[in-house]
Amino acid sequence: MNKTLTDVLVIGAGPVGLFSVFELGQLGMKSCVVDSLDIIGGQCSSLYPEKPIYDIPAYPEISGQKLIDNLFSQIKPFSPKFILGERVEKITKENDEFLVFTSNNKSIRCKCILIAAGNGAFGPNKPPLEDIEKYENKSIFYHITNKSIFKNKRIAIAGGGDSAVDWAIELSSVAEKVFFIHRRRKLRAAPHSVEKLFSLEKEEKIKTIIPFQVHSLQGSKGEINTLTVSNLDEEKIDLKVDYFLPFFGLSSELGPIKEWELEIEKNLLSVDQSSLQTSAKGIFAIGDICDYPGKLKLILTGFSEAAMAAHSCYKKIFPDKVLHFEYSTTSGIKKL
Ligand SMILES: Cc1cc2nc3c(=O)[nH]c(=O)nc-3n(C[C@H](O)[C@H](O)[C@H](O)COP(=O)(O)OP(=O)(O)OC[C@H]3O[C@@H](n4cnc5c(N)ncnc54)[C@H](O)[C@@H]3O)c2cc1C
């Protein structure tokens, strides 16, 4: 089993979880950040990377993704360990420390936990196909990290939003064939992308199969060979494909957080506002997931909570040390 030893485990790599790495680092604490997605950035990167945000102090306007890129640069000096694409499942207590397990059975031993889990763990919406998990990350992908594997391959892409349309356009230049499947005639993607999709169909680079939806799949040892699609008249088409890319968006669920025996109300973790501690000693919650009277679900509020929670972690981890408050202009960037 892969084991990590750290001072503070940060659950969630959204803007607030990322900024907490900075605040912890400035107080001399190492951190490990886990996210169920295999990209950092939480809601900013997953839901609105291109949208401008107007209420980040000192940035009259900054896009969701640029904010995350900047936060990533800001925390680089502290070299946090990232475990991405894995959900934190289980928290156990051992003496005064925690032993935490991920969905991939990695373990993290830490002295404090910062839960910055937003609305819960993000994951892809999956089509209801039997045995789909046997094909996942082999011939079925919910997002693309390496497009070279699709060179000269036959690919089916399903979905009607920007991801589905943009990837169909992008991969049509390398793949042997791209089938584009959507259950409704109207696509939700940007109009200029939809126009491009249909112009590529005229050039026979893409074949649209609309209005059809995925019905079943066949293959062996994780390798898909046939994807069957059907329409409302129960007409079926067998597509010979090497890869299937369902792009049905993301959803979030609190999932395991509900099992951690923390005080929870309306899907939010109740915290003491002055320390951000949850109902369990050494476990703190910050950002969208935490609640207290007057809470505002804003990124800037989460940043402030990250600073306060880092001070709370310091008190728990170094109970005998007196913390001398310093401005960053005085301390500079601390070395870990
Ligand atoms: C369209 C839109 C526009 C917005 N505009 C603004 C704006 O203008 N200004 C503003 O201040 N706010 C805005 N917000 C809200 C802002 O994005 C959130 O307040 C912010 O993202 C909260 O940050 P967070 O780090 O607390 O959580 P999130 O960004 O939600 O990140 C939480 C992360 O935790 C991960 N996670 C959860 N549970 C687990 C687990 N068990 N194991 C592993 N990982 C887990 C999730 O996968 C996720 O990546 C907007 C939100 C949306 C959707």
Keywords:
binds flavin-adenine dinucleotide, 5-stranded parallel beta sheet, 4-stranded mixed beta sheet, 336 residues, alpha/beta, FAD/NAD(P)-binding domain, 2 domains
Your description of this structure?
With 336 residues, this protein is α/β, with parallel strands linked by helices. It folds into 2 domains: 3-123 and 251-331, FAD/NAD(P)-binding domain (3-Layer(bba) Sandwich); 132-248, FAD/NAD(P)-binding domain (3-Layer(bba) Sandwich). The protein is 22% helix and 29% strand. It contains 7 helices and 23 strands. It has helices spanning 15-26, 42-47, 64-75, 162-171, 191-202, 299-317, 328-331; strands spanning 3-5, 8-11, 31-35, 52-53, 62-63, 81-84, 88-94, 97-102, 107-110, 112-115, 121-124, 154-158, 177-181, 206-209, 213-220, 223-230, 236-240, 243-246, 250-253, 264-265, 268-270, 283-285, 290-291. The strands form 7 sheets. It has a 5-stranded parallel beta sheet, with helices on one face. α1 (15-26) links the parallel β2 and β3 (31-35). α1 (15-26) runs parallel beside α6. The longest helix has 19 residues, at 299-317. The radius of gyration is 23 Å and the shape is elongated. The two termini are 26 Å apart. The structure holds flavin-adenine dinucleotide (FAD). Residues 11-17, 34-37, 42-44, 47-48, 53, 55, 87-88, 116-122, 256-257, 287-288, 297-300, 302 line the site of flavin-adenine dinucleotide.
